[in-house]
Write a structure and sequence with these properties.
2 copies of one chain form a homodimer. Chain A contains 3 helices and 10 strands. Chain A is of the alpha+beta class. Chain A has a single domain (7-130, 143-187), classed as Pnp Oxidase, Chain A (Roll), CATH 2.30.110.10. In chain A, strand 8 (152-166) and strand 9 (172-177) form a beta hairpin. Chain A is elongated. At the A-B interface, strand 1, strand 2, strand 5, strand 6 and strand 7 of A face strand 1, strand 2, strand 5, strand 6 and strand 7 of B. Strand 7 of chain A pairs antiparallel with strand 10 (185-187) of chain B, so a sheet runs across the interface.
Chain lengths: 189, 189
C-alpha cells in the first residue's frame, strides 16, 4: 500500500505515462490544467518571453505537441530566429510540474488548411488581418477582428526532453529525453 | 453601468492598479494565482527555461518583485550569464494575463540574512548543501535535505515592463514601462 495518493510518481515509466495522460487531457478538456500551458521563447534581443497558449494536440508516440498562433505574432518572430521553446504546465491536482524543451517547426498555408477548417467560427477572430497583435493603438478597442486563413499558423513542438517534478510527501523529479529513448533518470528535486 | 464584470480593465490606470493588487495578493495568500508565477530565463546555450516559482515580495512603488531560490540552481547559472527574466501569471478569477519583463539582481549571504531568518524551518530544506538541484541520482529519494544559509539566494526582479491582457466580452491589452513612468498604452490583443 502506498501512502502517497499519487503512486504513479514512484516509478519512471508510470510518471512519464501520467504526464502524457495529463497533456492529452489538456487537449480534450478545456478545464484541464494542461489546456493552457505557458510557452517560453527567446526574442531576437535575447530576452525570455512567456505567454499562455492553448494546447491543441499531443502525440506521445511522435513526441509532438501542437499550438495555434497568429502568423505575425511576436512569438513567430522569436521562433523564426531561434526555433526552440520551453513549455510549462503546473498541474495542481497531480501536484506535478511538467517542463518541456522542444524544437519548434512553424507550419502555415496549405499545410495547415485542414486544421484551419476545424477552427470554430467564433475562434477565428484570433487570426485576423489588419493591425497585428502587440501593435500600439490609440483606444483599447481600436482593432479589427476579420479572420484570415493566411494569419493562421501551427507550431509543432518536437519534444527533446521532459523534466517532471512531483511534490508529494517526498518530492521526486525525473528527466526524460528523446536522445535516451525516453528512458528517464531521477534528479535531485 | 458596465456590462463587463471587470470595469477596472477599461482604463489604463485601474488596469495597472489591479495587476499590482493581484501580485501583492500572491505574496500574502498562498492560494492566490500570483503566488506561483512562471519564471522564464535564457540558458547559457540560448534555450528558454521556464519553471514555477513562489512570489515572496511585491512593491509597486519600487517596481520590484522578489523570489527565493537555491543559490546553485540552474536558474542562477542562467541569470548570472543573462540577468534578465520574464515572469508570467494567468489569473483566472480576473481573466487577466500578467507578463513582466525584468532585470534581475541576485542577492546572497549577509545581504539576505534577515530574509533567511524569516524562512520557516519546514521550508529551509529547499536550500540544502549536498547534491544540487537538477543533478542526476540513482534513486528517486537519494538526496539530502540539510539546510544551509549559503545555499539561499534572493532574486530581485526590477520590472522594466508589464504587458496586461484582459479577456472579457471584448479583449483589452496594454503595455506599461518604467521608461515611460508607467503611463501605459493600449495594444492590439
Amino acid at each position: 500500500m502506498s501512502l502517497d495518493p499519487h503512486p504513479w510518481a514512484e516509478q519512471l515509466d508510470s510518471l512519464l505515462a501520467h504526464a502524457w495522460q495529463r497533456l492529452t487531457r489538456g487537449v480534450h478538456d478545456r478545464h484541464a490544467p494542461a489546456r493552457h500551458p505557458t510557452l517560453a521563447t527567446v526574442s531576437a534581443e535575447g530576452w525570455p518571453q512567456a505567454r499562455t497558449v492553448v494546447l491543441r494536440a499531443a502525440s506521445r508516440s511522435d513526441g509532438v505537441l501542437e499550438i495555434h498562433t497568429h502568423a505575425h505574432s511576436p512569438k513567430i518572430a522569436d521562433l523564426s530566429a531561434r526555433p526552440v521553446a520551453a513549455l510549462h504546465v503546473w498541474d495542481p491536482g497531480s501536484h506535478l510540474q511538467i517542463r518541456i524543451q522542444a524544437d519548434v517547426e512553424i507550419a502555415q498555408g496549405d499545410l495547415v488548411a485542414s486544421r484551419w477548417s476545424a477552427v470554430p467560427e467564433r475562434s477565428r477572430a484570433a487570426y485576423s488581418r489588419g493591425p497585428l497583435p502587440g501593435q500600439s493603438i490609440s483606444e483599447a478597442l481600436a482593432y479589427e477582428t476579420d479572420p484570415d486563413p493566411a494569419a493562421f499558423a501551427v507550431l509543432q513542438l518536437h519534444v527533446r526532453s521532459m523534466d517532471l517534478l512531483h511534490l508529494g510527501p517526498q518530492h521526486r523529479r525525473a528527466l526524460f529525453s528523446r536522445d535516451n529513448a525516453w528512458a528517464g533518470c531521477w534528479l535531485v528535486p
